[in-house]
Amino acid sequence: GYDRAYSLRPTGRVAPAPRWDEAFAWDGHALTTARPVRIDVGAAGKGYLVDIISGMLAGAGHTEFIVDGSGDIRHSGAVPIRVALEHPTDHTLAIGVAHLRGNSICASASNRRAWGDGLHHVIDATTGLPTRRVIATWAVSALALEADGLATALFFADPTRLGAEFDFTWVRMLSDGRVEYSPHLDGEMFT
Q1: How far apart, in whole angstroms, are the C-alpha atoms of residue 59 and residue 135?
Q2: What mean pLDDT, rounded, does the chain reach?
Q3: Is 0.90 topped by the overall pTM?
Q4: Where exactly are the structural domains of the chain?
Q5: Fewer CB within 10 A of the end CB, N or C, for the chain?
C-alpha cells in the first residue's frame, strides 16, 4: 500500500526522464523494458490478485465465494450481494448500493491513501498534482483487474469514452457533491 513515505522519486542523482521509445519497446503484443524502469501497478495490481484467487477457488470446484481484497471485490454464486458505496467525505454514510451478481467492483477515492490537505494518491500526470474534480469512483465489471483500472481511469476520462472500449458500469462523485452514474447500474443511489 501507499503511505506518507511512499515515493516515485528516485534517490540519489536525478536523471532526466527517458523518452518513451528509449525506455520501452512495444511490438503490438508485448511491452518490453529497454532499461531499468519503475512501474506502479496500483491501478490494477490488487484487482489482478483478486482475480487470481477467484480463479484458484473456481478451479478447486467452489461456485459460491466472495474475494474481498480490501475493497476490490469479486463475487461468484447464485445469490447476489449488496455493496455499499462509501461516501468519500463521511465514512459513516453510503451514497448508494451496487448489486454484485457474478462480477467485480473496485473503488478509488481521494480520502484513501491521503497525506495532508488535498494531497492524495491519484496524480494527474499532466500537472503532477493530485486530482481535484473527481473525488471517488466505483467500477463494476466481470474481472476485478479491469474494474480496478477503470476505477482509476474514471478520475480522468469521460465514462462514455471508456464505455466504448469496456463493458462496465460506474459511479463517480465530484468535488461539488454531485454524483454521476451509468444508466444501467445494477443498484441504487441515495443522493
Answers
A1: 37
A2: 85
A3: no
A4: 41-189
A5: N
